[in-house]
Amino acid sequence: MFETYWDPVWLTLKLATTTTVLLLLIGTPIAWWLARTRHWLRQPIAAVVALPLVLPPTVLGFYLLLVMGPEGWVGQMTQSLGIGLLPFTFEGLVVASVIYSLPFTVQPLQNAFEAVGEGFMEVASTLRAAPWDRFLFVAVPLARNGFLTAAVLTFAHTIGEFGVILMIGGNIPGETKVLSVAIYDHVESLEYTEAHWLSAGMVVFSFVVLVTLYALNGKARSGAIR
Amino acid sequence: MTASNTIRARFQCTFPGFGLDVDLTLPGTGITGLFGHSGCGKTTLLRCMAGLQGASGTMTVLGEPWQTETFIRPVHKRPLAYVFQETHLFPHLSVRKNLEFGYRRIPAGNRQIGFDDAVRWLGLESHLDRMPVGLSGGERQRVAIARALLTSPRLLLMDEPLSALDLNSKQEILPYLERLHDTLAIPIIYVSHSTEEVARLADHIVMMTEGRVVAQGPLRETLAGIDNPFRVQDDAGALLEGQIIDLDEYWHLALFRFDGGQLWLRCDHRVKPGDQVRVRVLARDVSLALTEHSDQSIQNLVPAVIDQIDPDVAPGISLVRLLAGTTPLLSRLTSRAVAQLGLEPGMNVWMQVKSVALVA
């Protein structure tokens, strides 16, 4: 009994952490590019990044299943690389979560980078800082709040993921059975007590995350005026 | 001027509704004032010089190419410093860390300006551990100037460093700028729309209108040039350099001597005998007489020779260029007065100077 409680919790935390770390690495250059470019591809790319916000998770899951399946091009590629197929594995969930939560990383970061503005970067370049130097020592510290918001939102959003996971991950204990799926399972089998424990836990967790986020943002804002 | 001690800038670029087209050779020492109304392209030109703004052209500083037809050196590899109108102090760094930002990025062997020297010159000793948000406008600009100097630049570019400041902060900064001019050998290009600032600080001046250079040269000659395109303004006038030689405490006057004569100024407590000062005489404050009258209210009478007479752009007005010794001055008269007095180039006249302003 104890095992079945903690397996999904542990798996969910592992998925959310992996996704958040990967997304910060992938999302930062995308957000940086979107915040500064005047390229005509800017709007189309911004729209692609935002797609997961509006699409039903089932649509996303359906296409991911096709693309990563034995007939899909990603599936063919992973098979020829000897990795096998991604659907119904933890790695498959990570790929899906990264795509699903992309806007929650990119948008706060993009806003933060836009707020840094060109002025500070120009000053840094006149003070002999090369592009990487400017990015690391001026843009990143000034966009610190954006990184915090992006990380917290991505983490929380991945934990709340359900539709995509059900579509491409199914319900394999210890491999793809995350919290939201476990709750669904319990309800299906009329195990309301177990469903209550997990659901109430999620409510408390989400509340704590959001309160922390707002508190941190508020503190940073008043810090700027101090 | 040879290539190794000049700054050569040639730029062309077009934007919607605005074009820049300049070809300048500037002295490699002293302060060059880049002067003109807002929108004339002076800031754009400065940004082109720094490499912050892309433009086709060439830029050579003291013999070192910064931009040629085929190559553009990135901004962070140019030995320049730039002081922006908005100071852009890094808000996440203390004053000390702001100052160290550029300083630590140049090799120790290339540092010609010491950290403590810059801090002392700009009076920042007691502010080092403060954060930028707590500083006043004047203090922020002093930090920005020190931060720029600490990169030991070969060229210092300043974009209206005083325009965002109130009058008190301006008065606070100006002495520091004057001291830089006297202590450092670094050439400075100083963008401003204020005649006062340029007159007080600059040695050389470039006047711009609509993206083009319309006049340039040593400050004194250029401001008093009869072909100066700014003569239609009410503030057309000449700039005199000289020394305070006497004070009249009772009448609150100071006697100013320049190459070509003497003038009484209304004195405030800032000047004392021996001070080198700059004085501005506006063309509208100079009238001319054929003989030396003393039965009138105007105290300042200076003999001069008429050099040139041109019609002003305003109808019925003439602009007369005079030489007192070697010093050029301007007088703005009605054309009828010029005709009735029979003024002609080469005539000896008396200038009656109604008002003289100490440039400060």
UniProtKB/TrEMBL annotation, chain A:
<comment type="similarity">
    <text>Belongs to the binding-protein-dependent transport system permease family. CysTW subfamily.</text>
</comment>
<feature type="transmembrane region" description="Helical">
    <location>
        <begin position="147"/>
        <end position="169"/>
    </location>
</feature>
<dbReference type="InterPro" id="IPR011867">
    <property type="entry name" value="ModB_ABC"/>
</dbReference>
<feature type="transmembrane region" description="Helical">
    <location>
        <begin position="15"/>
        <end position="35"/>
    </location>
</feature>
<keyword id="KW-0813">Transport</keyword>
<dbReference type="InterPro" id="IPR000515">
    <property type="entry name" value="MetI-like"/>
</dbReference>
<keyword id="KW-1133">Transmembrane helix</keyword>
<keyword id="KW-0812">Transmembrane</keyword>
<keyword id="KW-1003">Cell membrane</keyword>
<dbReference type="Pfam" id="PF00528">
    <property type="entry name" value="BPD_transp_1"/>
</dbReference>
<dbReference type="InterPro" id="IPR035906">
    <property type="entry name" value="MetI-like_sf"/>
</dbReference>
<keyword id="KW-0472">Membrane</keyword>
<feature type="transmembrane region" description="Helical">
    <location>
        <begin position="47"/>
        <end position="69"/>
    </location>
</feature>
<dbReference type="GO" id="GO:0005886">
    <property type="term" value="C:plasma membrane"/>
</dbReference>
<protein>
    <recommendedName>
        <fullName>Molybdenum transport system permease</fullName>
    </recommendedName>
</protein>
<comment type="function">
    <text>Part of the binding-protein-dependent transport system for molybdenum; probably responsible for the translocation of the substrate across the membrane.</text>
</comment>
<dbReference type="GO" id="GO:0015098">
    <property type="term" value="F:molybdate ion transmembrane transporter activity"/>
</dbReference>
<feature type="transmembrane region" description="Helical">
    <location>
        <begin position="81"/>
        <end position="102"/>
    </location>
</feature>
<keyword id="KW-0997">Cell inner membrane</keyword>
<keyword id="KW-0500">Molybdenum</keyword>
<feature type="domain" description="ABC transmembrane type-1">
    <location>
        <begin position="9"/>
        <end position="215"/>
    </location>
</feature>
<feature type="transmembrane region" description="Helical">
    <location>
        <begin position="195"/>
        <end position="216"/>
    </location>
</feature>
UniProtKB/TrEMBL annotation, chain B:
<dbReference type="Pfam" id="PF03459">
    <property type="entry name" value="TOBE"/>
</dbReference>
<keyword id="KW-1003">Cell membrane</keyword>
<dbReference type="InterPro" id="IPR005116">
    <property type="entry name" value="Transp-assoc_OB_typ1"/>
</dbReference>
<keyword id="KW-0067">ATP-binding</keyword>
<keyword id="KW-1278">Translocase</keyword>
<feature type="domain" description="ABC transporter">
    <location>
        <begin position="1"/>
        <end position="235"/>
    </location>
</feature>
<dbReference type="InterPro" id="IPR050334">
    <property type="entry name" value="Molybdenum_import_ModC"/>
</dbReference>
<dbReference type="InterPro" id="IPR003439">
    <property type="entry name" value="ABC_transporter-like_ATP-bd"/>
</dbReference>
<feature type="domain" description="Mop">
    <location>
        <begin position="295"/>
        <end position="360"/>
    </location>
</feature>
<keyword id="KW-0500">Molybdenum</keyword>
<keyword id="KW-0813">Transport</keyword>
<dbReference type="InterPro" id="IPR027417">
    <property type="entry name" value="P-loop_NTPase"/>
</dbReference>
<dbReference type="GO" id="GO:0015098">
    <property type="term" value="F:molybdate ion transmembrane transporter activity"/>
</dbReference>
<dbReference type="GO" id="GO:0005524">
    <property type="term" value="F:ATP binding"/>
</dbReference>
<dbReference type="GO" id="GO:0016887">
    <property type="term" value="F:ATP hydrolysis activity"/>
</dbReference>
<dbReference type="GO" id="GO:0140359">
    <property type="term" value="F:ABC-type transporter activity"/>
</dbReference>
<keyword id="KW-0997">Cell inner membrane</keyword>
<keyword id="KW-0472">Membrane</keyword>
<protein>
    <submittedName>
        <fullName>Molybdenum ABC transporter ATP-binding protein</fullName>
    </submittedName>
</protein>
<dbReference type="InterPro" id="IPR008995">
    <property type="entry name" value="Mo/tungstate-bd_C_term_dom"/>
</dbReference>
<dbReference type="GO" id="GO:0016020">
    <property type="term" value="C:membrane"/>
</dbReference>
<dbReference type="InterPro" id="IPR003593">
    <property type="entry name" value="AAA+_ATPase"/>
</dbReference>
